[in-house]
Each structure stands twice: as structure tokens, then as C-alpha cells.
Write a structure and sequence with these properties.
Blueprint: H1 3-12, H2 21-28, H3 51-67, H4 69-80, H5 85-106
Length: 117
Amino acid sequence: MAGTTAALLISDLPELGSLNRKQIARLIGLAPTNRDSGTLRGKRTIGGGRVRIRNGLYMPTVTALNHNPRIKAFYTRLVENGKPKMVALVAAMRKLLIILNTMVKEGKKWEANMINF
């Protein structure tokens, strides 16, 4: 992860490592929100939260699709199962955020053979 992204996470996300995966995804705005009303079932969308961090995670996730086998396999599986590419990219962003959150929480460094998050 680039130094710029690390600096952004350190400065704008002091909660990193102290929240669970659902809470951190909701805080950043990467958790899907439903648009349901009565019997109408709308599309799930993301939004709200800390837009600056969400925007800052975009390019590191695109880079991870090329260089991180776990993120790439996750993204490819979603696209092959019929998800739109942008939906799969947002899911990969959430996956990367959860991995980073768990690393900070457990005090671990990045390893290529980390367990599934």
C-alpha cells in the first residue's frame, strides 16, 4: 500500500483496528444499503460515510487486483458469477479495508499467505 494511502488512513481513520468489520465498512460507506419500501425491492447501494477514505481506497484496490492473488480471485469470482464490475470492485475495496482493519487490530504485518478475512 502506498505511503499516501497509509497516511490517509492514519490521519482520517483513527478508529481503524478498534471496530468490527461491519462497523468499519459502514463508517467508510462501503456497506450496501437497501432501498426497499413495502413490497418494492430496490438496488443495494453504497454511500455516506467518509468519502475521502472511500475515494482513497479506490486506486490501491485497483492495484491489488493486479498484484494481490486473494483480492484478484475474489473480484474474478464475483464477476464470473454475474456481478457488474463496479459492484465487484466495491466489494474488493471492502475486503481490503477489512483486511487492513484486522491487521491493525491484531498488530500483524502484511503476509502473502494470511488467513481468509
